[in-house]
Amino acid sequence: MDMNYTAKDYKSDQYVRWCPGCGDHAVVNTLQKAMAEVGVAPYDTVVISGIGCSSRLPYYMNTYGFHTIHGRGLAIATGVKVANPKLTVWSITGDGDCLAIGGNHFIHAVRRNVNLNILLLNNKIYGLTKGQYSPTSDKGAITKSSPYGTVEEPFIPAELALGARGNFFARALDVDLTTSKDVMIAAAKHKGASVVEILQNCVIFNDGIHKYVSDKEFRADRSIILEQGKPMIFGANRDKGLVLDGLNLKVVKIGENGITEKDLLVHDATTKDNGLHFKLAMMGSGELPVAFGVIRCVDAPVYDEEVENQIKDVQTKKSERSLQDFLLKGDTWEIK
């Protein structure tokens, strides 16, 4: 039976235990609104997490949920989805949980194209364990575990997701509730592994880490929200755009040197070649803005569906249709 759901239908009665001002508050509220718009019933929804501040999120959802162990959320989410493909499964993870101890599970869930919705909250720090540098911390970051600055190059989630042959990648800011909700809805509607990176602030241990792009004063000039089929325009005055200069992306100003909207790149998240998607996802240095919105959204065979179809195919060719049939197919004895 079709029902109209509201965000309240997805909220549990648990007190939300995050620090005041934490970006996780915005994420859980936005997720509940997105779920209501998608319209999958709470009893057909599962929210699974690993360990970390963000991984407390299942407690605040009026759905099935599982707070698992460090880095293993995606392995368990895969098992849930394969065991019951009818369920809509969300995986909530952080940059430490997902990309350190859970890195192997992440790249293989993406590679296999398991039909999961992965929300990767990236605050570039370990918050729950009190401020150590994480796999996404910037080189030189001074933290409790790198008092003289980390000497490591960071992981970039988009680079990993696309390198693992990912078919859906989107990005949003915790303070941009509209774009966050839009990409969550798009992720839910996509068949296959959908990765949504949310640049999230940790007010205690890494406050202002995304200020370069999140501050309202210059957000419009340092970010671009990509929309399917629309020219790549950004800027406070909507007068900047992106073009290709040889093999590189370049910022141009509309109206200068004869540049018009028709000269700008038009976003197509659905093209199978991920070359331009990769360039867009990796922007953010120099004049190039940080890209938000759905960057890549390509149809491909889905792991859990492929497994289910394989089982059905094998069952039609074998006399054993169940585990019981298999166990009893040989000689049996009755003990009295």
The first-to-last residue Cα distance is: 51 Å
- Total beta strands: 11
Q: Work out the radius of gyration.
A: 22 Å
Q: Strand percentage, roughly?
A: 15-25%
How are the strands of the largest sheet arranged?
A: 2-1-3-4-6-5-11-7
Main β sheet profile: 8 strands, mixed
Spans where pLDDT lies below 50 across 5 or more residues: none
What order do the helices and strands come in, and which of them pair?
Elements: H1 23-38, E1 45-49, E2 64-67, H2 73-83, E3 88-94, H3 95-101, H4 103-112, E4 117-122, H5 157-163, E5 168-173, H6 177-189, E6 194-199, H7 211-214, H8 219-222, E7 223-226, E8 233-234, E9 240-245, E10 248-253, H9 275-281, E11 290-297, H10 303-317, H11 323-327
Parallel strand pairs: 1-2, 1-3, 3-4, 4-6, 5-6, 7-11
Antiparallel strand pairs: 5-11, 8-9, 9-10
Please give a structural write-up.
The chain has 336 residues and is α/β, with parallel strands linked by helices. It is 29% helix and 18% strand. It has eleven helices and eleven strands. The chain has helices at residues 23-38, 73-83, 95-101, 103-112, 157-163, 177-189, 211-214, 219-222, 275-281, 303-317, 323-327; strands at 45-49, 64-67, 88-94, 117-122, 168-173, 194-199, 223-226, 233-234, 240-245, 248-253, 290-297. The chain has an eight-stranded mixed sheet, sandwiched between helices. Helix 6 (177-189) links the parallel strand 5 (168-173) and strand 6 (194-199). It is globular. The mean pLDDT is 95.
